[in-house]
């Protein structure tokens, strides 16, 4: 959920015209990651949990792509963007080891 906090904070510095495009998508992806982990942890089998971790992982790659789009367009704080990208990559490494 720390990643979600960082993404929401980063989005505050994005252009207002991206409110219904990138900002909305970034926020939804960042919420989807911990939400799927939480939902999967309530499942009865490891196989079901793994499915939700996979969904979480795919959301992290979607989030990474959107952050890279922001980077290419030079949106927002580059420091905050780097923090978000570093957290996404760390999360992906941890999910891939499951």
Structural class given helices, strands, pairing? mainly alpha
Count of strand segments = 0
Beta-strand content: under 5%
Helicity level: over 70%
Instruction: Determine Rg (CA atoms, Å).
Output: 14 Å
Q: How many helices?
A: 4
Q: What is the string of helix and strand elements?
A: HHHH
Tell me the count of domains.
Answer: 1
**CATH topology assignment:** de novo design (two linked rop proteins)
Major sheet characteristics = none
CATH class: Mainly Alpha
Protein name: Four helix bundle protein
Organism: Mucilaginibacter achroorhodeus
Pfam family, one: 23S_rRNA_IVP
Can you put this structure into words, describing what you see?
With 98 residues, this protein is mainly α. The chain is built from 4 helices and no strands. The protein is elongated and about 45 Å long. The mean pLDDT is 94. This is Four helix bundle protein. It holds the Pfam family 23S_rRNA_IVP. InterPro entries: 23S_rRNA-intervening_sequence, 23S_rRNA_IVS_sf.
């Amino acid at each position: 959920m720390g990643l979600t906090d960082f993404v929401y904070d980063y989005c505050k510095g994005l252009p207002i015209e991206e409110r219904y495009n990138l900002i909305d998508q970034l926020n939804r992806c960042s919420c989807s990651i911990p939400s799927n982990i939480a939902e999967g942890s309530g499942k009865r089998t490891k196989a079901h949990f793994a499915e939700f971790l996979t969904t979480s992982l795919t959301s992290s790659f979607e989030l990474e792509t959107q952050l890279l789009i922001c980077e290419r367009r030079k949106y927002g704080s580059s420091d905050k963007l780097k923090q978000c990208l570093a957290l996404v990559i760390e999360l992906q490494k941890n999910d891939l080891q499951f």
